[in-house]
Amino acid sequence: MHPPRYFPATPPAPLKRLRSGYPNQRGVGHEMDSRDDAARWDRLITLLKPIHAQAMATARRLCRSVDDGDDLYQESVLRAYDKLNGLRDESRFRSWFFATLLSRHRSRVRRPRRDSVPIEGAFDRRTEPVGEDGSSWEEERIRAQRAARALSGLPPVQREAIVLHDVEGFSVEEVAEMQGVTLSAVKSRLTRGREKLRRFYLRHGLRNDTAPNPESLTAGAMAWPGKERSHERST
């Protein structure tokens, strides 16, 4: 699996350029030499460390390749750095950062897509049983690919709701805050998304015991070939 390009101990590569001038959204360079900028980065790292692994995994699940997921996470970190001074209540950082992640995800969905690089080595190609059900690594890899393919058929907002609530374990209230919608809207997205996933498995002749679990979604065969579907829009 591709190693993460960002670990919350040092700035990711794009932020390292802040020391020599980093263009902000208006195209104007600014330096990271001031104490305020350094303190802001340190504050972001401190807040990000506890949720780093979960946020990166979520980014990969939302995207169609590991590279795209890592890029999404990098963009979200950069965006969070730019907006961090506006965060007054640090207890809300988790939901605030995930809301930023979702915003960047939707921006990426609207862009023309580049070709995805298929994931390799998400699971070792070993044949010994793993897990209590005796499934092999190869079987888990296949399950993960099916899960990824199923998720790829959902509109982005439904995919977000499924990943955040059913996989990551966020409450409906938390998902509503992150997506900026009502509770009923989240419940509707979950219901529709689950029904589409159910139909996907039925259409492919898969039994309930072959359905993916959160663990298989973690590595998740995050490379979906092809272009972003035109029907992927907010509902």
From TrEMBL:
Pro residues composition-biased segments: 1-14
UniProt domain RNA polymerase sigma factor 70 region 4 type: residue ranges: 146-197
Annotated InterPro entries: RNA_pol_sigma-70-like (IPR039425), RNA_pol_sigma-70_dom (IPR014284), RNA_pol_sigma70_r2 (IPR007627), RNA_pol_sigma70_r4_t2 (IPR013249), RNA_pol_sigma_r2 (IPR013325), RNA_pol_sigma_r3/r4-like (IPR013324), WH-like_DNA-bd_sf (IPR036388)
Alphabetic keyword roster: DNA-binding, Sigma factor, Transcription, Transcription regulation
Ranges of Basic and acidic residues composition bias in the record: 226-235
GO biological process, one term: DNA-templated transcription initiation
Any one GO MF annotation of this record: DNA binding
SUPFAM superfamilies for the chain: Sigma2 domain of RNA polymerase sigma factors, Sigma3 and sigma4 domains of RNA polymerase sigma factors
Pfam families in the record: Sigma70_r2, Sigma70_r4_2
Record domain RNA polymerase sigma-70 region: where: 53-113
Signal sequence interval, chain numbering: none
Region (Disordered): 1-33, 207-235
Transmembrane region(s): none
Family, similarity comment: Belongs to the sigma-70 factor family. ECF subfamily.
Full protein name: RNA polymerase sigma factor
Source species: Eiseniibacteriota bacterium
